[in-house]
Automatic annotation (TrEMBL):
It is a multi-pass membrane protein. It comes from Allorhodopirellula heiligendammensis. Keywords: Cytochrome c-type biogenesis, Membrane, Transmembrane, Transmembrane helix. It comes from the Bacteria. The keyword Membrane applies. This is Cytochrome C assembly protein. GO terms for molecular function: heme binding.
């Protein structure tokens, strides 16, 4: 990476978020200030980008025990992104991304009065717990594995639920068009099914995104590298790319033509989910976890050790 990126610190994105809060507080002046909304979006984007870069550098820093070691704690076996500081900063990043997306949808609201103080409070918490020791790599791997599994499970369930809601939407739309909706076999209204589709799309995108990130951190703790060429990882990335694109398309469509389009998107998302699951289950990605320390121990064992072991067994 560029040496300049290594100069990014907590101060960079904290200052950006604080400036956005000040810009939002200008709403209290009562006058409409030109460029206020654009300035807030630009500073928020800068804060999120620098926030992501900072966490990425902490996760990939070339330290003996990873970048997650806190001051005063042993760095020999410390996990990556495995301190309370890291956890607090990731929560702050999640809140920042949520605020940015919600602000894009409804720039006329004052949600910044609630989100931005919470973001700054989480950053302050991250700074205050710097002295706490990091979890070791085994604990970090187990933690991120659980986050990865739960997130991908939630994302898959949301995709499946959206698929069912989309199918019901198309059936109900056909029944209304042919005046058969008044029969004894009732389905939810189109408005209800449309809202379900949208929520499932957003939830699945967020959950699969968290699952991908947690999987990356899990592999960094487990192996010290990421097998990007693994078919399961590649197809999971394709699934997330599709879900993110579908969410953006849903965001851009006018409300009048959104329902049927979102239904088709959720149906297609199910196809991508099946493709991703087939890639996971047919490769080692979906197999049982192997302890990285055991693998290293087996690798370090020389021929003499193996011969001695065999003689002892005989």
């Amino acid at each position: 990476m560029l040496p300049m990126l290594h100069q990014i610190s907590i101060t960079c994105f904290t200052t950006s978020y604080a400036i956005v809060l000040l810009i939002e507080l200008l709403r209290l002046v009562g006058r409409r200030l030109p460029g206020r909304g654009l300035a807030g979006l630009v500073m928020m984007a800068i804060g999120i980008v620098t926030h992501i870069i900072y966490l990425t550098l902490r996760a990939t820093a070339d330290l003996p025990g990873g970048s997650g070691s806190a001051e005063g704690s042993p760095a020999v076996d410390a996990g990556r992104l495995a301190t309370w500081t890291d956890f607090s900063l990731m929560v702050a990043l999640g809140l920042a991304i949520c605020y940015f997306v919600l602000y894009l949808r409804r720039p006329d609201t004052v949600i910044g009065f609630f989100f931005l103080p919470a973001i700054l409070a989480m950053i302050a918490l991250a700074i205050s717990v710097r002295h706490l020791p990091a979890f070791d790599r085994g604990e970090a791997t187990a933690f991120w594995r659980n986050v990865h599994a739960l997130s991908m499970m939630l994302g898959s369930a949301a995709v499946l639920f959206g698929f069912l809601a989309g199918a019901m939407y198309l059936v109900q739309s056909w029944r209304l068009k042919h005046k058969r909706a008044g029969s004894a076999l009732r389905l939810p209204t189109l408005e209800t099914l449309q809202n379900l589709n949208r929520r499932c799309l957003v939830i699945s995108t967020a959950a699969v995104g968290v699952g991908l990130v947690s999987g990356v951190v899990m592999n960094l703790n487990r192996w010290g590298e990421i097998p990007w060429t693994n078919r399961g990882i590649m197809l999971s990335g394709v699934l997330f790319a599709w879900l993110a694109s579908a969410t953006m398309v849903e965001f851009l469509y006018a409300p009048a033509s959104r329902g049927r389009k979102v239904a088709y998107l959720t149906l297609a998302s199910f196809g991508f989910l099946v493709l991703a699951m087939s890639g996971v289950l047919t490769t080692s990605h979906g197999g049982a976890a192997v302890n990285a320390h055991d693998v290293r121990a087996d690798t370090d064992a020389g021929p003499a050790d193996t011969t001695t072991s065999r003689r002892g067994d005989s």
